[in-house]
Amino acid sequence: MARSGRAVRVKGLARLKERLQDMPDQITDALVEAVKESAEAVRDDVKRNVPVDTRGGDSHHLKDAVDIRYREGGLVADVGWFGPENSYATYVEFGTRRRPAQPSLYPALERERGRFAARLTDEIRRALR
Fold this sequence. Notes:
The chain is an alpha+beta fold. 53% of the residues lie in helices and 12% in strands. It contains five helices and four strands. The strands form two sheets. Strands 1-2 form a two-stranded antiparallel sheet. Helix 2 (25-49) runs antiparallel to helix 5.
């Protein structure tokens, strides 16, 4: 897994797809479930920890806009802010010259990284019972 700019890129996805085609559907379903659980955990962590500016009258907050998008049949989940109205999330996450970074997405991903293997193992064990 490599971090580049604002995204985390998973290497070896093409090879994984090839191998998944040879696996029973119940294993693939277990993998999709583990990805879903982890993506939801990251989203919920971000919602709890992203800063909220309560000084102004703006009712739009990043904690309400963090979302999940699934692709590759549910084997890949993108967690973050997707609309142009949320473009300022980059400035909150990474900071600017005048404002310090207040990261919430990357720390949430790092916290979940260690749990993902356990989730994956649990889901596969359940599927094989």
